[in-house]
Amino acid sequence: QAKSRGGNNTVYFSRDMNEETLRKVEMEAQLRKAIVKNELYIVYQPIIEVPNESLIGCEALLRWQHEETGLISPAEFIPLAEEIGLIQEVGKWVLIGACKQLKEWQDERLGDFYVSVNVSAIQFQHPAFLSDVKEALRVSGLPPEYLCLELTETIMLNDASYSIQVMEALSELGVRLAIDDFGTGYSSLSYLKLLPLDILKIDRSFVRNMNDHSPDVAIVQSVSMMGRGLKLKVVAEGVETPRQLELLKQLGCDYAQGFLIEKPMASCMMYDFLRKHKVLALQEH
Ligand code: C2E
Ligand code: MG
Ligand code: MG
Ligand code: MG
């Protein structure tokens, strides 16, 4: 077992430590420094309204550009950040960064859309989470309705009543709440009617396999209908083909996000994208 002694930065290895563990120990130490070394940055992926394809929001996605390894996927380092107790700090950094960025675009009149920030279950359950959200809104000056928090179904797994309490407090603040990767985790319809939700994001796995007669079409259609009944907006994730977008239109899905529309972009690229859209919108009027 490796023991990382916080005080003197000494790391002890045992002989049988495998490469995987070694890599993790190294990544751990480096992730702790990544924020101050400016190795973390946020990319933004547009979310559009399905019927008219206008921009309705964007998702903030975290990136880690490691000096030696290169780009490391959030799927790899977010769980690590959770494990080593860094997720609250990293998550707060993303919240503040995303809110400030959108406020900047708003101040330049670059559009009227929300930013969606991913929140891990452990981050959500941290006692400081609610105050972190408030602080992000305060320091950025972003109106709360322009911030959406993407939660996963796993937040209901332990201490559901605490989670509901936090969600209600967030909802009272005026931020929007989304369930991410909907349909892949612990979905309970009884929670759906209880929770102060605004958005459901249908997981990419359902969208990917949508062919005309696949069960996934029925699933996407049913979730879209349920969304309408519960007054929730439904986002399809991972839209990659024109055929998928066409099907979503027919099935009544509200919003879409995916490589077909745009890949996640660094903020300077997103800025260009917004400028281009603004010019096009002005020309149409
Ligand atoms: P997610 O929240 O479900 O984000 C959607 C993922 O799908 C993103 O991967 C995005 O780049 C990818 N994606 C979007 N459109 C398409 C498409 O058309 N096809 C395919 N194949 N993929 C598409 P990414 O950026 O690698 O993020 C992976 C996961 O890491 C996210 O899944 C989210 O759970 C987590 N994550 C990312 N940023 C953060 C963060 O700031 N905080 C937390 N807690 N988690 C984050
Ligand atoms: Mg997400
Ligand atoms: Mg998702
Ligand atoms: Mg997903």
UniProtKB/TrEMBL annotation:
Residues 24-278 form the EAL domain. It comes from the Bacteria. This is EAL domain-containing protein. It comes from Rossellomorea oryzaecorticis.
